[in-house]
Amino acid sequence: MRKLVLILAVLAIVPVAVFADLGVGAAAFYKSPVLLGQPIDLGSLNVDQFSFGGDVRFKLGWFQAEGLLLYSAGDVNSLNAYLDAGLALDVAILRLSLGAGPNFTYNFGESSPMQAGLNAKVGADVMLGPVSIGASYLMALNLENGIHIGTSSGLLGIQILFWM
């Protein structure tokens, strides 16, 4: 019975993998109030507010799933994983995307190192053949008190992905 389930699972996954797009690349993000209407003080730019890491996207039709792993250095070094699923629309050479999902944080050297939450992500990519260059904004969601975009800080980032 297990062999039959395994064979059926492989037979279902193989066609999806053949027709889906897979993008792998790098990402850099900055903890930024830019989209919240707050003034930008270039003198306060700090290396501790940058995060960098890898980005993997799986796109099938209008559906897109993404895994983003970022390392943040600073007062507290942390490893952050963002898993998002949502819509991605291709308009000429642009790919516009909107997604949401869970995020997980591991803080190195802290007494309670693990944290979990929810996030939303909006992005736009310029598709240049098998390469895309994009910008996105990643925001934490707090569902207990409602979503307050004006008081929420987020991450403003750029990505470069290679599509297969």
In total, the number of domains comes to 1
What fraction of residues sit in β-strands? over 45%
Structural class: mainly beta
Uncertain ranges: none
Characterize the quaternary organization of these chains.
single chain
- CATH class category label: Mainly Beta
The radius of gyration computed from the alpha-carbon positions, rounded to a whole number of angstroms, is 18 Å
**What spatial form do the alpha-carbon principal axes imply?**
globular
User: What is the fold-level CATH name, i.e. the topology?
Assistant: Porin
Find the count of extended strands (DSSP E, 2+ residues). Answer: 8
Major sheet summary line: 8 strands, antiparallel, barrel
- Tally of contiguous helical segments: 1
Q: Please provide the ordered H/E string of secondary-structure elements.
A: HEEEEEEEE
What separation lies between the terminal Cα atoms? 34 Å
Helix content: 10-25%
Strand order of the largest sheet: 1-2-3-4-5-6-7-8
Description:
- With 164 residues, the protein is mainly beta.
- It has one domain (21-163): Porin (Beta Barrel).
- The protein has 1 helix and 8 strands.
- It has one helix at 2-19; strands spanning 21-32, 50-60, 63-72, 78-91, 94-107, 114-128, 131-141, 154-163.
- The chain has an 8-stranded antiparallel β-barrel.
